[in-house]
Amino acid sequence: MSLKTFLRGRNGVSARLLAKLKHREGGITCNGEPIRSIDTVREGDVIVLDMGENAAAEPNPSLYAAIAYENESLVVFDKPAGMPVHESHGHRGDTLANYFAYLYPELSFRPVNRLDKDTSGLCLVAKDAHAANLLQGSCEKVYFAAVEGVTDEAGTIDAPISRERESVILRCVRSDGRPAVTHYRRIACNGRYSLLEIRLETGRTHQIRVHFAHIGHPLAGDDMYGGSTADIARQALHCGRLTFALPLTGGEVTAESELPEDIRNLLELRAQTAATTAHLLDR
Predict the structure, then answer these.
(1) Which of 39, 45, 78, 116 is catalytic?
(2) Do 203 and 228 meet the contact criterion of CB atoms below 8 Å apart?
(3) End-to-end Cα, the chain, rounded Å
(4) How many CB atoms lie within 10 A of CB 250?
(5) Rounded CA gap, 96 and 100, in Å?
(6) Rounded CA gap, 69 and 83, in Å?
(7) Which is the CATH superfamily of the domain at 55-137?
């Protein structure tokens, strides 16, 4: 078959990427020699796509994010709370993009799933445009959140989300918003906080934070949406499981991240308070 048919049909190379590679010297080679998209390829040929990309962010070796999984096409970082994914006004040099640039100076930063600065957990980054294209929409994410109060044991929140009229950042539930569906299951509770396992049917900005505030159970520490910062200084939200198909082989991989200590501590507060009270009474 032609190289174009092989790349587009069998390997999911986008038309845009193929056009970009065709116009780059040495962009596509077959057995080490340049090849045109109309040329025939045969079983046993080795096709190499040279992405030839450079990172835009300034490398920062002082940062750190653990790697939960990595292969030649992608890397899954376990991002700490407080680290933005992208550079922005007010955040230059302190982001996951800057750490990625330090680890892979020859690559462009292509996050497949994005997390808020104060949300911890798994962030999948493609190492090239082809992998990014194949991974889009293929990731199944499981979040864990500590919310205020005692929720139902399980439930679904189906409430449209829109931008707040006066704000660039804030979102709210509003009838003219975009459809948003959140499924949850309670896995622990101490009367003060409920720990939830959350799966998203849609992916709206701040969806988890907005939906649980809407039903009267804001995330602990999420003062933007009504949560208290008395026991934790950031929204208690963590991306703890990420399942995706490998771009080149199609095999399924699941990466996992442990619940951070600051969220675990929320579920122990009641026991700690009771123990302290008992100790004081004994005295």
Answers:
(1) 116
(2) no
(3) 85
(4) 8
(5) 6
(6) 19
(7) Pseudouridine synthase (3.30.2350.10)
Q: What is the pLDDT of residues 15-73, one digit of tens each?
A: 877 887 777 667 788 888 888 888 898 988 888 887 665 546 889 999 999 999 999 99
Q: Where are the beta strands (DSSP E) in the chain?
A: 28-30, 33-34, 47-49, 66-70, 74-79, 110-111, 120-126, 140-148, 154-158, 161-163, 171-173, 181-189, 193-200, 237-245, 252-256
Residue 130 DSSP SS3: helix
- Chain position carrying tokens 């996050």: 111
Q: Rounded distance, CA 66 to CA 76, Å?
A: 9
Helix, strand or coil, per DSSP, at residue 193: strand
* Domain ranges for the chain: 3-49, 55-137, 138-283
Report the alpha-carbon distance of residue 200 to residue 178 in Å, rounded: 14
CA distance 8 to 67: 31
Identical fold, 55-137 and 138-283: yes
Burial class (CB in 10 A: 0-12, 13-18, 19+), 205: middle
Do 105 and 223 meet the contact criterion of CB atoms below 8 Å apart?
no
* pLDDT single digits (tens) 106-165: 999 999 998 999 999 999 999 998 899 889 888 999 999 999 999 999 999 999 999 888
Report whether 235 contacts 222 (CB < 8 A): yes
Q: Is 45 a catalytic residue?
A: no
- CATH label, 138-283, candidates 3.40.430.10, 3.90.1150.210, 3.90.1150.10, 3.30.2350.10: 3.30.2350.10
